[in-house]
Amino acid sequence: MAHDGHSRITAPAPNVYDAEPIPEGARAEIDRLLQSGDLFRYTSDNAPVSLLEAEFAAFMGVRYALAVSSCSAAMFLALKALDLPRGSRVLIPAFTFAAVPSAVVHADCVPVLIEVGHDFRIDLTDFRMKLAEGAGAVMISHMRGHTSDMDQIMAACDAAGVPLVEDAAHSLGTLWDGRRIGTIGRIGCFSFQSYKLVNAGEGGMLVTDDPEIAARAVIMSGAYEHNWKKHPGLQNSFHLWQNRLPLYNMRMQNLSAAVIRPQIPEIDRRVRDGRANHDRVADRLNASPWFRVPKALPKEDRAPDSLQFNLIGVETDAAAVKFQELCKARGVGANVFGLSRDNARAFWNWQFLGEVPDLPKTRAMLMRAGDLRLPARLTAAELDYIADTLIAAADEAFGRD
Asked: Is residue 305 one of the residues assigned to a domain?
C-alpha cells in the first residue's frame, strides 16, 4: 500500500460489514417455502428447523440441539432449564455483550461480574473467589472468540457442584484440547446473527447431552401441546414435563433454518480463512510498538472473525480517541471499547443492573482495548490495508513521525 511521510493510506477501504453470500443451495428451499407458506417449524415432521437441529447436533457431536430465535433466547432457556431458584447468583465475565447479563436478569437471576484481564479472559483468582461465595450457575462468554482456561474453570465448577453454561456466540468452530467449544459445559449456546460465523440475520442454538435439560428447554421454547413429539429421543422426559412449564415462544422459523443449513458445511473452511486473516493482521500489529494482540492459549484452536488488541504506552484517553478517529477517517472501524460512546460491551453501561461494581482490571483493559471486524472473506490486500491503516493512525496519534 502507498504511504506518504505521514503514512497516509491511498487505496480504498475494504468493506468489513457485509457477510459472505448465502450459499446457492438455500435458494430452492427458500423458494419452496415461499410457495407453500410453510414457515412454522412444527407443521411437518421434516421441517427445515428439525433438519437443521439434527445436522448441527451431528456437527457438534452432541445428543441434542434446539434451534431458537437468538443466542440470548438460548442463554435464557439454558438458565431456566437448569431450574435455578429465583435470585440465584450467576457468574459471568465482566467483558461480554450486554445480552449476557440481560439473559440472566430475564431468567430472574442475579449477574455477578468476574474481572477480565488484558488477554480478554477471566481472571481465575477473582473467579474462584466469587465461586466460593456461592453461585447457582456459571455462564462463561468466550467473548470475541477468546477462550478462557476451560480446564481450570471446569475443575472449579465440578468441585463446587455448579453447572457451567457456555456462551459460544463468537466461538463456533473453536476447539479446546480437541473438543468443540460449546460442548464442554452442561449447555452450549450459539448465535446466527449477521456478524457471526454463520449468518441468518438472527437465530440461535442450544446444545446439550442432558435429556432432562433438553426436554425442559424444548417445551419452554414453545413446543406447546404435543409438538415435542417432533423432537426425537426425549419422549419419557417430555411426558414428565407436559403442562408443567411456561411457554416462552422462542422458536426458530423455517426460513432461518433454510438459510443456515447450507452454511454448516462451510464452517471449517470459514474457520481456516478467519484464523489465517486474524494471524496475518496480528503479526503486523505485534511488530509495532503500539499494539499487542494476545496469543491463543496452548490448548485453544481459535475460530476468529474479528481481532482485538491492546494499545501499549498510550497514557491519555484523548490520544486513544484520536487514534480511533484517524482509523475511522481512513475507512477502518477500529473502536476502543471503553471510549466508544454507550458501547454495549462496557460493563458500566449496563445500568439496568443497578450500582456499577468496582472492577478495576476490566475497566483498565476496556479503556485501551481495540476491536475490529475481520470477516473470513477479506483478501490479503484488504487485510494489509487494515493493518497499514491501524499502524499509521497509531504513529500519528501517539507521536511517531
From this structure: yes
Categorize the per-residue pLDDT at 18 as very low, low, confident or very high, splitting at 50, 70 and 90.
confident
Domain closes at, from 265, 300, 321: 265
292-309 pLDDT, tens per residue? 999 999 999 999 989 999
The answer to whether 206 touches 196, Cβ cutoff 8 Å, is no
- Closest by alpha carbon to 39, among 29, 26, 24, 54? 29
On whether residue 2 sits in a domain, the answer given is no
Tell me: do 292 and 195 sit in the same domain.
Answer: no
Quote the number of domains for the chain: 2
Instruction: Please check whether residue 3 lies inside any domain of the structure.
Output: no
Domain that holds residue 363: 267-398
This prediction has a pTM of 0.94
- Residues 341, 366: one domain? yes
pLDDT at 11 over 90: no
- Over residues 332-342, mean pLDDT: 94
State the CATH number of the domain containing residue 246: 3.40.640.10
Cβ-defined contacts of 345-349 (< 8 Å, 24+) = 345/95, 345/96, 345/97, 345/98, 345/143, 345/371, 347/94, 347/95, 347/113, 349/98
Does residue 20 sit within a domain?
Answer: no
* pLDDT surpasses 60 at 3: no
